[in-house]
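agent> step 3/5: call structure_predict on target 'PAS domain-containing protein' (Chitinophaga polysaccharea).
agent> reason: downstream docking stage needs a structural representation; sequence fetched in step 2, passing through unchanged.
tool.input:
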Amino acid sequence: MSNWERKALNFINQTGRWDKDKHISSFLAFSISLVKSLTSADIALQLEFEDEDTAKVKCASPVHLNGIVLNPDPIKKLLYAQGFKIIYWSKIPPPKENALSGILQALSSAVIIPVNTTPNNSLMILGWSAPQTFMPEFQECIETISLRLKEILLQSEQQLYFQRIAARFSAILHTIPHAMVFINNDGFSGWINQEGATLLGLSGPGEQLPAILSDAMTQLRNSATNSEDIYREAVQLFSSPENSITNWRWQMENKTLKVSCFPVNTQQISGRLWIFE
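tool.output (status=ok):
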């Protein structure tokens, strides 16, 4: 294994231990610092396209480069001309031909790595004072690092997206005026909304073990004045996993619950949804 292969593997290993619950900007700062160390670059930074008129330096080492603002138009033209591939400048072009001259002063060589982030796209830029040759082994290392960055960023974006979706639907389900209970057939997972937790006398809404939910619903059923009728209906309901029931009356001492139970079967989950009105 070559030295550059080891460095690429080092980057993969260290980013593999990254806690994806942290903000994505922190991951980029961590990655930029790591790449700078692995490649012995003299500068390393993120250049973020904040809007149509602003490209700003962030996560820079040395830190005095942070906050520098560049015109994004010529930089985007450079990226388009290169097909958004990694750019290797063994010799940095003169200022008149170099859209990045404002941050690459007194440097001999540079590497520009396009990075897709949300909501704004960025570049990771590495620079060296001494001339670099960028041999194929080095370029393979940088390509591997770039692929790993894309992988982690995509995973983080997907996780944030699903967290937002989960929070949105959780908020909706907790405000529904009916008690809702879902019990997964895997025997390990279940969920209840706020009205359901109140009805069943549980500590709070959210994830609950199916055994806890089943025991609480059994206690509720046993407290009904028509518990024997409920039991007979339940035998019919559970005789087939595809069976469902609506307008099922559970007569309590001071109220009547209208109960529905539906099978839920998708590629991801299989169980039953209970609704108490």
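agent> step 4/5: record observation. The CA atoms of residues 95 and 101 lie 5 Å apart.
agent> proceeding.
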